[in-house]
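Many introductory courses stop at the sequence. We go one step further.
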Amino acid sequence: MTNSIKLLIFSFTVFSTCVVAQQKKTITTTKTKEFISIDGELNEKSWENIDIATNFVSLEPKNGTPIPEEFKTEVKVLYSDDAIYIGAKLYDPNPSQILKELVERDEIGTSDFFGIFINGYNDGQQEFRFFVTAANGQIDTNFTSSDGEDGSWNAIWESNAKITDFGYVIEMKIPYAALRFPEQDKQTWGINFFREVRRERQKYTWSPIDNKIGAISQQAGLLTGIENIKTPTRLFLIPYSSFYLSGSDTKKTKGELKGGLDIKYGINDAFTLDAILVPDFGQTKFDNVVLNLGPFEQQFNENRPFFTEGTDIFNKGNLLYSRRIGQTPNLNINIAENESIINYPGAINLLNAMKISGRDKDGLGIGFLNAITEKTMATVSNDDNGETRQIEVSPLTNYNVTVFDQRFNQNSSVTFINTNVTRNGSFRDANVTGLLFDLNDKSNKYNISGGLKSSSINDTENSNGINASVYLAEKNGKFRYSFGGDYVSKDFDNNDLGINFRTNYYSVYNDANYRILNPNSIFNTFRISLASYFEFYKPTNQIQSSNFNMNLNSTNKKNHYFGGGLNFNPFKNYNYYEPRVADRYFVNPENAGGYFYFSSNYNNKFAVDFNPYITHVLNENRYEAGVNISPRYRFNDKFSLVYSFDYFKQKNDIGFIDLVNDDIIFARRDRDTYTNSITSKFSISSVMNFNLSVRHYWALAENNQINTLNTDGSLTPNDTYTTNKNSNFSTWNLDLSYSWWFAPGSQMSVLYRNNAATFDRTINKSFNSNFSNLFEDNLNHVLSISVRYFIDYNQAKNWIRKG
């Protein structure tokens, strides 16, 4: 670490310690040797005559005001040699009105709920959060002061919820294996309790949280009284077995049996090893594929659990796009003119993956992720004689991410991150390194953040690039502002394990906003912001992207959400990406637009989302507009249905369609996109659910006028180009699933999936005809059954002893 960085950290540390900490609320726990049944009764003698956490305070919307007496909340805490127990009485003047929708694990739905935030190191930086709904649904998250809540994190714990004549009761048992704390005889943990009265949209906490400051984890109370407990052996084995039955209208049905093992091992009290052997991601959610006519690839969400659970530390600096691991292979390969690819793989198989992650008592976070994908081949056929040969489309590849993240002062950090992709043989290798900082003063009013990243590519031509950014913000109170800038060199490339679309530019941006901190006579929440963004192509200093915008977001007294915005681009933009040729550009004219958003209160059985939007190119008959309408109905606490319709229209859109010799061919085109989707759930209980997800997508792009792109970015009509480059694309996806959590951490799931896709160059504007063609000899079917069983080493050890 350079002397200048050390001096910066030291100066910021001295400044940030000038604020006196507030007196923290404290609750003392009591040890029990009694068996505590997690039944929501709180009738064991151990619950009697112990310390009570009460006098909750509003978090929002009436920040800082005491909880009304009719919603009084009382919480007690016990501990044993292997777990901590929480018993909560949540009073309600109308128990019959308590909202308690049944939903899947890790979803709240329309329900009242209670939560506990635990920080075993009491450092204000990381909390393990456990929530239970009034319908006994479980939600757990890992919260860090720098990244917020990571809802993908999962732990194994017990809970129960019961509606009573005074409100409802929550009882929880959280094993020490689900927590992190130091090896000390006497423990002092950071703790807070949370409650939401859903029908009132009121949120309360035991330890007050000042929303002018934010920094929720640093305003927690204290839990004392825990003594002489040991950090348990954290070894979990999750064996699984899956069976797939797949077929289509043109292929015979075949069966496939898979099996594998996930391992979780606590290296010490802070760090955990996760490994998957023989991965199986066959039941992950389908991708929402679209007709992509732009210069950049479509970015998909990560749906594979291994790459979503507890991976917040690996996302520092936005250098990891985990869909690169096991992605669809690149088929842009050199073959002879008389050859064709006849058999190609849909994905690259992941052989194994492991990660080590955690944070110690001194605030040092370490992340290490490694994955290996197999050598992948495609089959090429000679069109003249029919001979075939195998060609390598992806070699054996190792992907690695290493992160060191040092936190200090509870809310600041300095991070080192490195990503590396090494491919076997003469294929391309890549290495990207970043040094990041996120500094806040003790009051969390001022922030300065940013970093420097460098990339090094080893290919037929080696290249090196840099990416630098800085961001400053005042983030307290009603008025807040920020500004920043980025610089990205031409050869910066993190696309082997990350994703980045634009290079060779510098940008500046700012934001100023006003919000209310407590409700007024009209609004529960209200925020208005003004922002601008300018991005310049570095070699010419031309504007390649710019925008001024104003946005408003608000919630009225009936908890309906209203939002909207206006955007204005008063300058010509020079688009260096759409032409697909280096140093060529297309000039986009000035434009203006706006949007509106309304979302009615989801507490009501019927609710609707409505979002129209439009952008118009000034002085031209060229625009894009759309609308999304999404009604939803909750028939009862078990069954709900959501329908969504999205229509998007582009009139006289202009874009690239072909490259002929040195001529770049553009088209003026009309585009229409229709998306219909249905999601529904039927929950038998909080651990047994049926889910339906259906999506039909249809997009048309009809070219009306063919043009040649000139060197000055303008267009000249082209009457000689006759190739049909119209697009008619449809996709269909249906997932019907059943999920049963038959034991803590153990799940059986059954999934029926069918899907289809069509693409052709003939424009057919008949919805019925296109919909019918989509299913004609084109539908694929998969039925899969998967069982995962969670084995805790500590429990297994007891089983063996009893045996």
